[in-house]
Specification:
The complex is a heterotetramer of chains A (321), B (307), C (369) and D (528). Chain A is mostly helical and 321 residues long. Chain A has 13 helices and 4 strands. Chain D has 18 helices and 22 strands. The radius of gyration of chain D is 25 Å and the shape is globular. The complex binds adenosine-5'-triphosphate (2 copies) and magnesium ion (2 copies). Chain A: Keywords: Cell membrane, Membrane, Transmembrane, Transmembrane helix.
Chain lengths: 321, 307, 369, 528
């Protein structure tokens, strides 16, 4: 494997990691606030559909982005309603929303565009254009770092950079602001937050909606950045890989970045090579694809350090027994 | 009333299924009659769908794609009074018409064009599901390219090993990016819905691309070199017509260059990219293939490719 | 103090929830420009309007009974098994191996062997998440989701590799004739009734038997008693000498085995060869079925038939109108949402109503079963 | 006369069918310490939670410093100058002390400034009120006493001048409690108003100015502490004369049934909860274990009952018990003649959603009498239940009733009936009368004594010193996972036991294990 190939694989990894990263950070907000969300997948999917649909009909990717985020927010709000207001089971709600997304996107796509479960291909202003980072050309001559910067890091669409910047932003919000303190507290002990005079309900809704927003970005990137239009079930399990990355990252933003890059890298490699030769053994493609899932199980089993979720995670806050 | 079962990937895959759908529509518009149509959602529903069509009295029933073979083999005998047609595969039953195409020949021609258009000396191929049928495309393509330029490099990638490989535009795009990284400047996508992503990325990255099955030239005028059309539409149209006229024949039907079953799409969208040289070379080769002067190796005949 | 009378808890709440789900589904149908009542008519007619419809309805129901029971048994031990899909996939592998291994002379021999194969493989696939939950505290919901993906990757690997039959499609060879199960059509033909063609087969009876056995297990055996006790309170189980490890394992093994049995119906009964995607989401439908059926075998049975009808009706709907079959997925999602997650929305107002209108007469000693 | 700091009028609150507070009125004068006492479940916590805006009253008015104030949420309570230390602390375990203190009272959107300010203020407060804590320690690393200080600091940081403490001493040793009281007195001198909830009469007498008594959701009396005494308060609390001592004959201890040597237990987070316990219990004797909650008594019962594993040697009737492995479980213990009435009947002793008859088999469901082949013999089980319900006077006498629909006392009777009727050699009993009212208490005590008189060995754990003193034939005091010493009830008193519970042994009186044995021999005139 020569250097150029490595640069290309890294370039591809960043692209493929972006939806995972955005969704992973989305899950991070929600779960840090004590609301488990296995519905990342569904939110991404509706966002992907609506962003592509609106971008296709209006010709503006920005309107598409807005629509995608809005759709994802609606789903987030339903999750909030079920798990915060009505204290339902968060896992069941997530499962339901994933199905709802899978079904409605097809239904609406078919009704709207009559092109099977897909939107028309997006072109021109209906898609995000790549952005060249400053000095990309000038620096590309520098050995090693030059190509890495110019080819792997530069030349992605805006949402990739939003995703990358969201990592320090998330860290800052969670660990350096009042909102973050309360958010983390509500995921650990909502009773403490409540008796401190802060509304648990409002905090959890805020977290769930931020989760919706980020999932919206993830979905929009999928349909308008990575691909050029919506196709049925285009998230293809990315929501679950994001969840896996979240566990891998132990609910921390910087770790999340590395976890998502790793999973993006695995995907990039599996895209490029149908089997991977590891000196003695040859790993078939099916297993390269399943690797993130296998890794998650291994991590959950505690072989690679324990991952303790937020203490109040998954439990609705009930004041009165 | 004839029936058409659209395969996985959907009738708007801009490729294989869409071509069949267009054939049926053409028949419907010309005759003013309606036909039964349904779209498969999953592998395991093939049987129910075929049977439902048969129970409803559709005749003939056209099914698309090799994946239907084993189901049809089982279903056809239960409905001896119904005629079936299957595209891309041979099913030996008394009431089944098997329509197969000489994809290797068409691919040979687009391979030639690719080699002539390439400036880097590297061209590439993105296949859908890794099955002999798709290797047949790849092999024909490589033979054509080598015929023009024996030193040319032909990169070949398959999207996957399962039917999901027909519908993964994101992966298609990633594959072609990798190929571009390896120097390819013309890509041939024989990958159903996945091809949409391949052609899109080719257009984004500014390399030339070749579509498949349907004429896909209109998708990205300016970067679409041509399309290797496979006239599934004609096959469906003919089957419907024959049934109406009472001339539906069972058995194997081979559609090749000679009867325009496969071919190269030339239209206003790729006029600028196709040079006169290409035009004449392709025309000449076509005649030579028809006459047997050039023999294009069919991968499926011995599951191997000489180049 | 029970806040709701038993009948309200067991029947009224689920029915209200179902109604809500159907109303919202109707709105969705109307939104995409179809007449919901007409759609309803087509679905009902398609599902139960002919022996053909019934055949398919009950065929799907058979799948859902198995996966629903699987989810229900795990629910009783307070384990949320989302892995029905993967366990059924793996079970299908077991069934296929059994069917392909021997040139079966007659289905009466093949069926018990296949049941064993499906159950063992299904249970095997549930065993690892169960073990991880019991010994390492890994959340079973996440591990079973991951195992769904891993199962499907594994099946792909096998079906494009060693199990692949000659030909292009990733599928195994057909099972020997002797492994074909008698269909409803065959059975009814014996008594001279013409039953429309459908894949409904003897597995339906196996499913009924399974439901009865699950009932027996949960409410009549020690193990069932222990499963329910553990599900209600883990510290109490410890206090009573019930091993959490043992119960977690056994409940999940039984659950996985039930999910694996689904393959008898789908793979052996219908497809007669192993396909890559043979479960078709039935593992997930099982969640909805168990929730609707309040995890009781009788409830699961009824809910499974309801969902079977939905699936068959949905297929007809797609055939007759331009409403895609995915409408069923939407309905399913809404049922899970309303009966599972938004349960509190109907329950708490109802509780208030019942509290307001006084305590009812002391309830008769109604058995739990 | 100034306005009362707090006045509540006509407060009522129901949880579903349970009326937790019924038409309550109370006045608390500024600068005083006002005690509220009442049995478990009397509604004390509910009332205070309403005052703090944690619950909303169904009816009633709240006046703060003479002004009618609506307290819809805790924010409003904090604004009104009310601070509360809950019975169960409301702290975020993996936050630092400082983070916990500023939580909800931050200044500005960024943390750095608030944390800095809080640090200074905290230092000030700690000095003013003897409330030293390390601001950067994590809560999970602090002991309960420290955590409680954090709770108080939280309230003070929010400038509360009305401070509510809900059973603050339940988890404290007597010396920690003394320290707390000194702090409270300091606060009172500053002019702050304090409401102190407890059900320990001694504490009420020691520190409060006025005291209110609650019973069954109602406020039965408010009196000046100086004008009343413990007897009167106890009577007010339970509604009738309280029997202070259990009637029982002298014990006739026989052979050693339970012998424990160097028993150790390490919990899930690696903390050693039992640090080498050695004890015996003889046939026909009740050994009471006294101690503040959380000093290892629960773990002792659990390891003996087969609910957790440990190391060391435990013999029952001379046979050694497995302390780890598959045969260290509760089922094996039962087979060895050990019955166990657990501390927490709702989470351990009963399955709240099971019928009475199903609960009567709980733990003994594998008993051949309850089984017929593969299936359980439910008819036999129900017959057995009917009998036990009648014998133990469980009300309602309906074996189809779900456990959660019985009152606390009747739930406990079901557990006691189940365990005592097995005719065990050794009975482990934890908190037998927690949350049970006086009628049932007497009955349960009688049953336990009767079992003793039938020659069985009984290990009793209770946090109620009264109960220990009146039931036990011998008392061992636990502190920090160790036995501090053993005493005979006739030769000790609450004061001495209290000191031992705080980890202080009075060496002057130097009772070693051997001496107590000797005393016992002397008392009963024989050696086991
Ligand atoms: N959140 C709740 N939901 C339902 N019932 C409750 C709730 N909180 C308290 N109760 C019930 O209200 C009654 C009063 O409870 P409360 O906690 O106020 O008593 P308490 O006097 O503080 O008792 P303790 O001394 O045990 O703390 C009890 O019967 C209790 O079961
Ligand atoms: N948290 C609760 N939720 C629902 N009902 C409750 C709750 N707590 C108590 N009850 C019900 O309220 C009634 C009174 O319960 P409580 O425990 O106060 O009884 P009690 O009068 O103290 O009786 P006992 O002397 O037997 O303890 C019982 O019927 C009980 O079922
Ligand atoms: Mg209390
Ligand atoms: Mg009581």
């Amino acid at each position: 494997m020569d250097f150029l190939t490595i640069v290309q694989i890294l370039d591809s990894s960043i692209r493929l990691a972006t939806p995972l990263l955005l969704a992973c950070l989305a899950g991070l907000f929600s779960e840090r606030a004590g609301v488990f969300d296995i519905g990342l997948e569904g939110k991404m999917l509706v966002a992907a559909f609506f962003s592509a649909a609106i971008a296709a009909t209006t010709g503006s990717v920005w309107l598409g982005l807005l629509a995608g985020v809005a759709a994802s927010l609606v789903f987030a709000a339903i999750h909030g309603l079920a798990s915060i207001t009505f204290r339902g089971d968060q896992l069941i709600s997530g499962v339901a929303l994933n199905f709802l997304a899978a079904g409605t996107t097809v239904l609406i796509a078919q009704d709207w565009f009559a092109q099977g479960a897909r939107t028309p291909a997006l072109t021109g202003a209906a898609r995000f254009a790549p952005i060249d980072l400053p000095f990309a050309d000038a620096l590309s001559g520098i050995p090693l770092l030059g190509p890495l910067y110019a080819q792997a890091l530069s030349g992605h669409t805006i949402l990739v950079y939003v995703g990358l910047l969201a990592v320090p932003a998330t860290w800052y919000v969670l660990f350096r602001t009042r909102f973050g303190l309360r958010l983390r507290a509500v995921g650990e002990n909502p009773g403490a937050v409540d008796t401190a005079g802060v509304s648990v309900i409002r905090l959890r809704y805020a977290a769930v909606l931020i989760c919706g927003l980020l999932c919206g970005l993830a979905g929009a990137y999928l349909a308008t950045g990575l691909a050029a239009g919506f196709t049925q079930d285009m998230t293809a399990g990315r929501g679950f890989i994001a969840l896996a990355a979240l566990i891998f990252a132990k609910w921390r933003p910087w770790y999340a970045l590395w976890a998502c890059l790793l999973f993006g890298f695995l995907q990039a490699v599996s895209n490029r090579y149908s089997t991977i030769d590891l000196w003695i053994v040859e790993i078939p493609n099916a297993f390269v694809i399943a690797l993130p899932y296998i890794l998650t199980v291994v991590i959950l089993a505690g072989f690679v350090g324990r991952a303790t979720p937020p203490r109040a995670g998954g439990v609705p806050y009930v004041k009165e027994r | 009333e004839p029936g058409l079962i659209i395969d996985l990937g959907g009738k708007f895959d801009k490729s294989f299924n869409e071509s069949a759908y267009n054939g049926a529509m053409r028949w419907s518009e010309e005759t003013g009659e309606s036909y039964m149509e349904t779209e498969l959602q999953s592998e395991a529903q093939r049987e129910q769908t075929m049977r439902r069509m048969a129970e409803r009295g559709a005749n003939p029933i056209v099914v698309l794609g090799f994946a239907n073979a084993s189901t049809l083999e089982k279903v056809a005998p239960d409905y001896p009074d119904t005629d079936f047609a299957i595209v891309d595969m041979v099913v030996e039953q008394p009431n089944v018409q098997s329509i197969v195409f000489s994809e290797h020949e068409g691919s040979y021609l687009v391979g030639m064009m690719a080699a002539m258009a390439s400036e880097t000396g590297t061209v590439s191929f993105v296949g859908g599901m890794d099955v002999p049928l798709i290797r047949k495309f790849a092999c024909g393509y490589a033979q054509g390219a080598k015929a023009v330029n024996p030193d040319i490099t032909v990169i070949e990638n398959m999207t996957g090993t399962t039917p999901a490989a027909w519908n993964d535009p994101v992966k298609g795009g990633e594959l072609v990016r990798a190929q571009i990284g390896q120097g390819s400047d013309v890509v041939f996508a024989a990958a159903g819905g996945t091809g949409v992503g391949v052609l899109q990325t080719a257009a984004d990255e500014g390399i030339e691309a070749i579509g498949v099955d349907s004429n896909q030239n209109y998708l990205h005028p300016g970067t679409m070199l041509t399309s290797m059309v496979k006239r599934v539409d004609n096959a469906v149209y003919d089957a419907f017509n024959a049934a109406e006229a009472g001339t539906f024949e069972t058995g194997i039907q081979v559609k090749d260059l000679e009867d325009d079953g496969v071919g190269v799409a030339l239209d206003e969208y790729n006029e600028e990219l196709v040079t006169d040289d290409m035009r004449s070379a392709v025309e000449e080769a076509k005649q030579q293939i028809i006459s047997g002067e050039i023999e294009v190796h069919d991968y499926t005949s011995d599951d191997s490719c000489p180049v | 103090m029970e806040k709701l009378p038993r009948w309200a808890d067991i029947a009224l709440v689920p029915i209200l929830n179902l109604l809500l789900a159907l109303i919202v589904s109707g709105i969705v149908v109307a939104l995409i420009g179809q007449n919901p009542f007409e759609a309803m008519r087509i679905m009902v007619d398609g599902a139960v309007g002919s022996t053909y419809g019934w055949g398919y309805t009950l065929f799907y129901a058979t799948n859902f009974i198995f996966t629903g029971l699987a989810v229900a048994v795990a629910f009783h031990a307070k384990l949320f098994n989302i892995g029905g899909e993967g366990q059924a996939q793996f079970g299908s592998l077991g069934v296929a191996l059994v069917c392909l291994a021997v040139p079966w002379p007659h289905w009466t021999l093949a069926l018990p062997a296949a049941i064993l194969g499906g159950a063992l493989f299904g249970a095997g696939w549930a065993a690892i998440p169960a073990y991880l939950q019991a010994r390492r505290g890994s959340h079973i919901v996440i591990t079973t989701i991951m195992f769904n993906f891993i199962a499907s990757a594994l099946l792909v690997y096998l079906l494009v590799g060693i199990l692949k039959a000659p030909g292009m499609a990733p599928e195994t060879a057909r099972f020997p004739e002797g492994a074909y199960l008698p269909t409803a059509r065959d059975i009814f033909a014996v008594i001279g009734v013409d039953f429309g063609y459908s894949p409904l087969n003897v597995t339906f009876l196996v499913a009924l038997l399974a439901a009865w056995l699950v009932w027996l297990l949960l409410w009549r055996t020690r193990l069932g008693y222990e499963i329910r006790a553990f599900g209600h309170s883990e510290p109490a189980a410890l206090y009573a000498g019930i091993s959490p490890f043992r119960i977690t394992m056994l409940a999940m093994l039984i659950s996985g085995a039930l999910a694996g049995l689904m393959a008898i119906n789908a793979v052996m009964g219908e497809q007669q060869r192993l396909l890559q995607d043979n479960v078709l989401g039935a593992g997930f439908v099982g969640i909805a079925v168990a929730l609707m059926g309040r995890s009781h075998p009788v409830g699961v049975l009824l809910a499974a038939i309801l969902f079977g009808a939905l699936y068959q009706g949905g297929a007809e709907l797609e055939f007759e109108t331009s409403v895609p079959r995915d409408m069923v997925v939407v309905i399913q999602a809404l049922v899970i949402l309303f009966t599972g997650a938004l349960d509190g929305m109907t329950r708490s107002p109802l509780e208030r109503v019942f509290l307001r209108f006084g305590r009812r007469a002391p309830e008769p000693g109604a058995p739990a079963e | 006369m100034s306005d009362p700091a707090i006045e509540l009028r006509g407060i009522s609150k129901s949880f579903g069918a349970v009326k937790a507070n019924k038409d309550i009125a109370i006045r608390v004068m500024p600068g005083t310490i006002h005690g509220i006492i009442g049995e478990n479940g009397a509604g004390k916590s509910t009332l205070m939670s309403i005052l703090y805006g944690f619950y909303r009253a169904d009816r009633g008015e709240i006046f703060i410093r003479g002004e009618r104030t609506d307290i819809p949420d805790s924010q409003a309570a904090i604004r009104a100058g009310i601070g509360m230390v809950f019975q169960h602390f409301k702290l975020v375990q993996n936050f630092t002390v400082l983070e916990n203190i500023v939580l909800g009272a931050e200044e500005g959107a960024l943390l750095t400034t608030s944390l800095g300010k809080a640090r200074t203020l905290l230092k000030q407060l700690s000095e003013d009120y003897e409330l030293q804590v390390d601001p950067d320690a994590r809560i999970e690393d602090l002991g309960v006493g420290m955590q409680q200080r954090v709770e108080i600091l939280k309230a003070l940081y929010r400038q509360a001048d009305i401070l509510i403490l809900d059973e603050p001493t339940g988890v404290l040793t007597p010396s920690e409690a003394d320290h707390l009281f000194r702090i409270l007195e300091g606060l009172k001198r500053e002019g702050k108003t304090i409401i102190l909830i407890t059900h320990k009469l001694r504490e009420i007498m020691e520190i409060t100015d006025t005291v209110s008594v609650m019973r069954r959701g109602e406020m039965t009396a408010t009196v000046k502490t100086a004008e009343t005494g413990p007897e009167e308060l106890a009577e007010l609390m339970v509604g009738r004369k309280v029997l202070l001592r259990v009637e029982k004959k002298a014990a006739q201890p026989g052979a050693r049934v339970l012998e424990i040597e160097d028993l150790r237990v390490v919990d899930g987070s690696g903390v050693e909860r039992l640090r080498g316990i050695s004890l015996d219990v003889r046939a026909g004797e009740i050994l009471g274990i006294a101690g503040v909650a959380g000093n290892g008594q629960s773990e002792l019962l659990e390891v003996l009952g087969g609910m957790r594993s440990g190391t060391g040697r435990v013999r029952v009737n001379g046979d050694e018990l497995d302390l780890v492995g598959p045969r260290a479980d509760a089922r094996t213990r039962r087979a060895r003649g050990i019955a166990h009435v657990p501390e927490d009947r709702q989470h351990e002793g009963l399955i709240m959603d099971f019928h009475a008859w199903e609960n009567v088999a709980f733990g003994y469901h594998a008993d051949p009498a309850y089984n017929r082949g593969l299936l359980m013999d439910n008819d036999a089980l129900r017959r057995d239940t009917e009998r036990k319900i009648a014998k133990f006077d469980v009300r309602p006498a309906d074996c189809w009733q779900t456990a959660k629909n019985f009152s606390g006392g009747n739930q406990q009777k079901i557990v006691i009936a189940r365990e005592l009727e097995r005719d065990p050699d050794l009975l482990l009993v934890g908190q037998p009368t927690r949350g049970v009212d006086i009628g049932a208490i007497e009955f349960i005590h009688q049953q336990i004594v009767a079992l003793r008189d039938a020659g069985k060995a009984i290990l009793l754990v209770s946090v109620e010193l009264d109960e220990i003193l009146s039931l036990s034939d011998r008392i061992a005091v636990m502190f920090d996972g160790r036995i501090m010493g053993e005493r005979l009830p006739s030769q000790t008193d609450e004061r001495e036991l209290g000191l031992m519970m705080a980890g202080i042994t009075d060496t002057d009186r130097g009772h070693t294990h051997a001496e107590v044995e000797g005393n016992l021999a002397h008392v009963h005139g024989k050696v086991g």
